[in-house]
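Regression test attached.
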Amino acid sequence: MKNEVRLALTGFMGVGKSSVARHLEHITGCRRFDLDSLIEETSGRRLAEIIDSDGINKFREIETAALKNALDAGGGCILSLGGGTWTVAANRELIITKGFTSIWLESSFEHCWFNIKFSRKERPLARDKEKAKKLFEERQRIYCLADWHFLVRPGLNSYDIAHQIADQLL
Ligand code: S3P
């Protein structure tokens, strides 16, 4: 099946954006970009190293540049954002202007934290549980600006989520 959809997945670290995007790639046949991976490939550096040595503001600049490149891809596209990408107003504008439908994958903090703890991905902004929880709470009102809101209920895996999104959107 090939559907010319343009979807941008947002949500907190550990919610499963990248895994859901992988399934949506298979379902739709569209190209997929993982923003964090793009940043690592183009810079030749690990995200954690960029954030730790250059700071979060520099990382956000690099992230916006990578986002512009990814959004320039024409046609169908599945884009998994980093957890902070959507929180930057200029990034939201770019995503909207380039014709993407944004989807917020929402889950509880404890669910995200569980995944963060058991993931191999290094997340400098989630080394401390209390700080991560504060960030999670601050960001809810910004994530909810996305076009679509998908509530990740307990027991749903990334395959189920992708299929439910596809059933509703395609
Ligand atoms: C970040 C989330 C990370 C990554 C970076 C910053 C954030 O992506 O972009 O560590 O600000 O929430 P994931 O959401 O894929 O972990």
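Expected vs. actual: identical. The two ends are 11 Å apart (CA to CA).
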